[in-house]
Specification:
The complex is a heterodimer. Chain A is built from three helices and no strands. By secondary structure, chain A is an all-alpha fold. The longest helix of chain A has 15 residues. The mean pLDDT of chain A is 93. Chain B is of the alpha/beta class. Chain B folds into two domains: 238 residues, Thiolase/Chalcone synthase (Peroxisomal Thiolase, Chain A, domain 1, 3-Layer(aba) Sandwich); 147 residues, Peroxisomal Thiolase, Chain A, domain 1. In chain B, helix 3 runs parallel beside helix 7 and helix 11 crosses helix 12. The chains are: A mainly alpha, B alpha/beta. Chains A and B meet through helix 2 of A and loops of B.
Amino acid sequence: MDVRNKVIEIIAEQAVMDVEDVKPEQSLDDLGIDSLALVESIFAIEEAFDISVPFNANDPGSGEFDISSVGAIVKAVETLVVEQG
Amino acid sequence: MNRVVITGQGTINALGRSVAETQDAMREGRCGIGPLDFRDVDRLSIRIGGQVRDYDAEDHFNRQQIALYDRFTQFTLLSAREAIAQSGLSFAGDLAARTGVVLGTSGGGLNTQDENYRSVYEDGKNRVHPFVVPKLMNNAAASHVSMEYNIKGPGFTVATACASSNHAMGLAYQLIRGGSADAVVTGGSEAMLCFGGVKAWEGLRVMSKDACRPFSANRNGMVQGEGAAVYVFESYEHARARGADIIAEIIGFAMSSDAADIVMPSKQGAARAMSGALRDGGIAPEQVSYINAHGTGTAANDKTECAAVADVFGAHADALMISSTKSMHGHAIGGTGAIELLACTMALREGVIAPTIGYEEPDPECALDIVPNEARDAKVDVVLSNAFAFGGFNAVLALRAV
């Protein structure tokens, strides 16, 4: 599975946007993804790739999983897929 | 309007099997949170909690009772036994009809649900015990208190997630104040520490894997607890006429709804509940010396709660004390407000303020006197107890020393 396309598809669904409108440089704020949508996105990513994402909603900004932009999330998921694959 | 007082209190929770044990632990700042111990805990990513450890139902109840009493009902009955014994009341004749039971819980018989779903889904069994329904229902605990003690007045269960027992105690207060009852057995209970209960909470990603550190800058989430606390609320006249020992007086109560978000707390909603309780009790903000905080140890709650306190109390916010005992007994969800009220009665009666333990780093967004790590001696006259639930339902009680 192409990680990048799948992650963007998940984020686009949460943002209620078309896949082609989601750009790697955009932040979750730009896309209007709030804390609940973020937790749902992480869940969808875990289910899609059968991985475990280190993420605590109390401190979403720091920690091992970089969510600063769509591109950063794609990269972090790629790393986890390799590590846990 | 009748004045309302507390004449009995009882509890079982991670800190102790009685009020004395629990308040001793609060005084010593002892932590009741530790590794969880139940079936399939190895399949959880969250493995700590404020569990009532080394608890054996058979030490307290016979086989027929255990067939009907979920863990949350057992906790309720043990707490009610202590509270009613302390009150000295026995319910017969007119008093039975003039006494109610109003209890809070969120999950009700969740252990019963978990065990029986496991049995039919995982083990493939096609038959469950005949008493599954009366054992798991949310009002089972209140009903068994009514049956055990012959309480024949108003009886019901309140479920407002983390505010359940504050709502229950507030309604008990209103029943007596308004003249619908002379006494009400009230409080709440929760027993959600089982595989399914904790697995569901894991999903929200708000649980800490290591500790509950309310108001600390490095806090990383809530830790779940379990247990119950039950009180006898009684009209002041009734209590005085029989020469009862009065523990404290309830003087105000308010509820509010955020009407905003299903999980994120609202500063306005919390502030409206606190200022409402002050107004209800005719209390000036400066009279309040201690607030038992909701203080869950999540990023969102603690900063929102502190901001709400600052809004309601203005400059006095810096003079009052506010602590979260969830750091010691964990978040007992629908029973938590009842367990936490023990910190309020300890403050009013013994002049000891329970600490917020696990405090490590100041957070500029929680810059109040949170009584860090060590209990403090202080004479207090009026206190508040906060509860703010998922779903945006808030309930705040005000108490006074007698």
